[in-house]
Amino acid sequence: MRSRCEDHLDNSASATERRKLAADLHNAQAARELIRAAADTWSLHQALRGQAHLKPRTRRAAGRNATTHAPRRGRRDCRRRRRTPLVLGLSLAAAAATVLALLLGVPARDPAPAPAEVRLLDQRGPLPTGFARDLAAGRPLAFGAGSSCVFGLGPIDGRVTVTGPARFTLVAPARLRCSRGVFGIELAELEAGTTWELTTPHASCRVLGTRFTVRVGQQATELQVASGRVAFAAADGSGAQMVGAGGSASTSGAPQALLHYPFDATGAAVLRSRNAGFPAPSFVCDPPPQTRDGGLVVTPDDHCTTPVRQRWPELAARLRRGRGLTLAARIRCLDPPPPNTLVAELFAIIPDNPDASPTPFPIQVRYRETPDTRTHVFAVVWTVDGALMLYRDGKQIYRGEKPYQLDRLSDELQLKLFMPRRHHEPAEGLSGIVFHDLWLFDRALDADELAGL
Amino acid sequence: MQSTPANDDQQDFLRAWLPAQTAVAAWLLAHGVARQDAEDLVQEVALAAHRAFDCYDPRRPFVAWVLGIARHKLADHHRARPVTLWPLLDDEARAQVDRAACELAGECDDRLWAMQECVRGLDDPARSIVHRFYAQGHGVHRIAEALRMSVNNVKVRLHRIRKRLRRCVELRLAAETRR
């Protein structure tokens, strides 16, 4: 039975085996086994993707047999229900999903702490109900921009200033886990052998009696030490250093590309993506590709694309996650190109509605501003609110609008390299482009991140 | 101390949703939703549950309520991309799966944590196989090719690793219960 469940969950069960499994599920024990195997599959999937998890501390108090949840609130009349704006809903769903993701890089579970002594000393703007109580109990807390608070910590002599938007948890009396916000820490000299630690998704700061500020962004963590010393390290333990008074340190959050074509190999391998965690599209070139200066040479007569009308569901699913997208290319033109030359394109279809014909959705990187033969990184960035921006070497050179819904992006995707003839554009004066890298990111990168490519 | 109804709602919802999340995901996988789709569907269920949270009666199990929402999402999903097992189940079998998911919800958080600990304990070859299979979504044929093993060998090893992990998870959960 267990093996049949596994085959089913691995999508390798035959139709006959599935029918047998369906018949078995009239039995409660068989249903339990299937659900447990599915939970294990999900847990394994999450664990292997680095989604570290911390058990919510409320459950320990609530007892182990709690299959029901009783929120503090009473039932409201559904007819009078508050219309939650979609954006708020989305952010909450994202928050629910990210509460787990926030814990990335943090040791799996802290020992059950003694309750911390927390005193709320000051606040501005709204804070969650029962803030001090929940903080002391080690529950995750979050508040928005415009709110801030100062709380004191006992028994050590310390105070923490938090400026929103912030998300954090006091996981132990001497350990604050922060995933977003600006945190000012003031601690008196600690007793010998004791430490106080602040961790973020990117770094850890072990305090040795000091005053310092930590700014936790989505990509990186910055530390500034006003007095004393702080032992600072990246979340994976690398780059450990002691930062003294007046010093600062930060982690770099280099963006991870969904697809990266380095174009630096030889033969067929040159056309493959290097770091996709799923079946990734490969380029097909006609005629066979030439390489020069460690890059791929594409001329107006060449046809270098991924297969047309090919479905890439894993890739499309990642792009539909509502974080925008970025297509970037490091290139060098063999001759100065005319302005607005098409460099690369991601082509997809957006089905507007069932009655209308699908809308072509080309996201294009274009060569602009400096018609020269030096190497540049051009990028097109499309944000979730429909802004479309073109960058050259991290500098924004164009901004427009593209009001399509990315979450309706088709599974059929195609990447194209420099095909002016096939885009009905004049090819006169175009000799060719050397492609060194092509990246596709499943979010909108900012100027600093693009400059770092 | 100030608070807003929106803040209260958010916190209530998150407190209810987080322990239920794994049960919902397991329920979707059990019905034959592909792993790569399950994550998106779980998020859709979370969003719909939050929007309808005012209609939730706190005297009833949250997991059972949220599975009702998941059922609608599964039906929608099935129209676009057929799932394998769900159409084969009659009402009685579906009810058994629902009950099993509700029962499991109480220990899902512990299970997820325990699995993470157990995966850390795997040796490198075993971790390589499960990482390729679960995190990278490679099929057994591709793994066999990459690791120069037979397909059958990969299947057997996967089975053994899962068995080992399951035993490890159960042991950790039992130890946790005794604490």
Q: Could you outline the blueprint of secondary structure elements for this entry?
A:
The complex is a heterodimer of chains A (453) and B (179).
Chain A: H1 2-9, H2 15-24, H3 28-48, H4 57-62, H5 86-101, E1 117-124, H6 131-136, E2 141-143, E3 148-154, E4 158-172, E5 175-187, E6 196-199, E7 203-216, E8 221-234, E9 241-243, E10 248-250, E11 259-261, E12 284-286, E13 290-292, E14 295-298, E15 303-305, H7 313-319, E16 325-333, E17 341-350, E18 359-367, E19 375-382, E20 387-392, E21 395-401, E22 414-417, E23 433-441, H8 447-451
Parallel strand pairs in A: 5-6
Antiparallel strand pairs in A: 1-3, 2-4, 3-4, 4-5, 5-7, 6-7, 7-8, 8-9, 8-10, 11-23, 12-15, 13-14, 14-23, 15-22, 16-19, 16-23, 17-18, 17-22, 19-20, 20-21
Chain B: H1 5-30, H2 35-51, H3 62-80, H4 91-105, H5 108-120, H6 124-135, H7 140-147, H8 151-178
Helix pairs in contact in B: 1-2, 1-3, 1-4, 2-3, 5-8, 7-8
Description of the molecule:
The complex is a heterodimer of chains A (453) and B (179). In chain A, strand 3 and strand 4 form a beta hairpin. Chain A is α+β, with helices and mostly antiparallel strands. In chain A, 17% of the residues lie in helices and 36% in strands. The longest helix of chain A is centred in the N-terminal third of the chain and has 21 residues. In chain A, 37% of the residues are buried. In chain A, strands 1, 2, 3, 4, 5, 6, 7, 8, 9 and 10 form a 10-stranded mixed β-sheet that branches. Chain B has 179 residues and is mainly α. Chain B has 8 helices and no strands. The relative contact order of chain B is 0.10. Classes of the chains: A alpha+beta (453), B mainly alpha (179). At the A-B interface, helix 1, helix 2, helix 3, helix 5 and helix 7 of A face helix 1, helix 2, helix 4, helix 5 and helix 6 of B.
